[in-house]
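Fill-in record for Pyridoxamine 5'-phosphate oxidase N-terminal domain-containing protein.
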Amino acid sequence: MNEEIRNKIETLLDQHRVMTIATLRPDGWPQATTVGYVNEGLTLYFLCGLESQKAANLAQDDRVSLTIDHDTPQVMEITGLSMAARAQAVADRAEAEKVLRMLPLKYPEQVSLPGPMPTPEQVRIFRVMPTVISVLDYSKGFGHAELVTC
């Protein structure tokens, strides 16, 4: 991938903090859920409950699809990302603690949280590694997307 498209992807990732992630349920139906995320370059992280449906789905099949975008008043201003990726549970405690320190930094305007940040043992943290990224930019034409393989 060239540097220009990588920079565009990383800028979009850095500008947002919410994504919709789709996992596959055991019955084959996709399940889309909105989650907060942090990223380090093209690697994304999100957390969920230990017993959540997402965690159960990902234990069976690590393939995910996700979107990152925002609402805009003008159709031709739509930008966003769509990804096919693999999500693995973070097992390394140091990596998990780093992610938990990164999360509050995505919300600098937060006055207070309802409680302390969870510990790595209280949540499931997933590392999302994209395999294909579609970069949507309507300013280049209606429905314009650039497909990037990672």
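KEY FINDING: Residues 20 and 89 are 18 Å apart (CA to CA).
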